[in-house]
Design a protein that fits this description.
Length: 369
Amino acid sequence: MSVQPRRARVAVVGTGAIASGGHLSALRAHSDRVELVAAVDVDTERLAAFRGRAGGGVAGYTSLGGMLDVERPDLVLIGTPPALHREQTVAALAAGSWVLCEKPLCLSLAEYDAIAAAERDSGAYASVVFQHRYGSGAVHARGLIARGELGAPLVAHCQTTWHRDHAYYAVPWRGRWDTEGGGPTMGHGIHQYDLLLHLLGDWTEVRAMASRLVHDTESEDVSTALVRFANGALATVVNSVVSPHEVSRIRVDCAEATVELTHLYGHSNDNWVYTAAPHVPPQRAAAWRTPDADVPSSHTAQLGVVLDALERGLRPPGSGDEARTTLEFAAALYKAAFLGTAVRAGEIAPGDPYYAVMHGGHSEWSPAR
Ligand SMILES: NC(=O)c1ccc[n+]([C@@H]2O[C@H](COP(=O)([O-])OP(=O)(O)OC[C@H]3O[C@@H](n4cnc5c(N)ncnc54)[C@H](O)[C@@H]3O)[C@@H](O)[C@H]2O)c1
C-alpha cells in the first residue's frame, strides 16, 4: 500500500483582493497537496469574509506572530501591501516557514539582503510571486531561447501599457515610496520585465527616463528604459499606468525567429506567436509551436512549482538570485532615470543611495521634495 505524502500546512497573511483571488484558487487547485490551516488580517471583516469563502477549518488571527507561534505552518502566502513584505517574510522565515510573497518582494535591495540573511539563518526559503514565468508558453519560449533553437537573441521590446484611474490611487498605500516602493516600475511593469529578464538572462546596463504625467503621486506614473543584456541583446522597456488601450507585450527578435507574447493580465499558449526568418525551413518552425498541454500563467502554476521544491527541500524557483536580479533592475532603472546616467549590474551596493530606497533621496523624487 502506497503512503500518501503529508499535505503542506499553509497560512495566508493579508486576505484582500489577491489572496481571495489568485491565492485561494491556487490553494483549491492543489488541495491534494496543501491544507489551508490559518488566515491573518488586521481587518476582521475581511478576515471573516475570506474564511467564509475558504470554506471552514481555517483558523483566524489578527497577528502574524500569534499565528506563527500556534500554527507553525510549512508555507506562508503573503498578500499584504508591499511595505509589510520584508518584516512579515523575515518573521515567517524565522519561524521556519517557507514563504511565497506577492510582488514586489520588498521595497529595496537593502530589504532584499535582509531577507536573504534570514533565509541563511533559518534554512527556509522565500519566493516572490511572478506568475507569468510559470505558464507553459513562457516555459517553452525560455527553453527554446536557452537551447539556441531560435538563434541568438538580438533585440527585444517589453511593454506594460495599463490604465489606472484616480480612484485607484486614492487607496492610501498606492503611489508612495514608503508603502508601494514606486509606481508602475515596481507595481505593474515588474511582471513583464521580470519575464523579459527570465527569457533573456543577465542584464548588464540600463539607461532610463521616468515621469509623473497624470497622477498626483510621489512616484512615477510612466517609466521607459533601454537595456543591454550579457548575451549582447538590446531591449526597450515601457511601464505605464496612463495608457487607455491596455496591453502587456513582449517581443524578442532572435536571429532565426521572432517570438511575441500579447496578453493583459495572464497568458496561455495561444498568446504566443512565432515567426520564422525567411531562410528557416517550415518544418523546423513548426517544432517551435508551444506544446498542446496548456498551463495558463497563474498563481496555481507557481504554487505547483513551489510545492515541488518544498516536498524535495530544494531552493524554489523565484527565490534567491532570481528574485534579487529583478529588484536590482528596478533600482537601476530608477537610478538611471533620476540621475540621467547608465547604470551597470552590480554597481548598486551598500552605501549607494539607491540601495537603501528606490528614490535614492533624489531632490525631485524623494517624499521630502
Ligand atoms: N501577482 C499579481 O498579479 C498581483 C495582483 C494584484 C496585487 N498583487 C500584490 O498583492 C499585494 C496585495 O495587494 P491587494 O490588491 O490584494 O491589496 P488589498 O488591499 O486588497 O489586500 C491587502 C490586505 O492586507 C491586509 N493587511 C494590512 N496590514 C496587515 C497586517 N499587518 N497583517 C495582516 N494583514 C494586513 C489588509 O487589511 C488587506 O485585507 C500587493 O503587494 C500587490 O502588489 C499582486
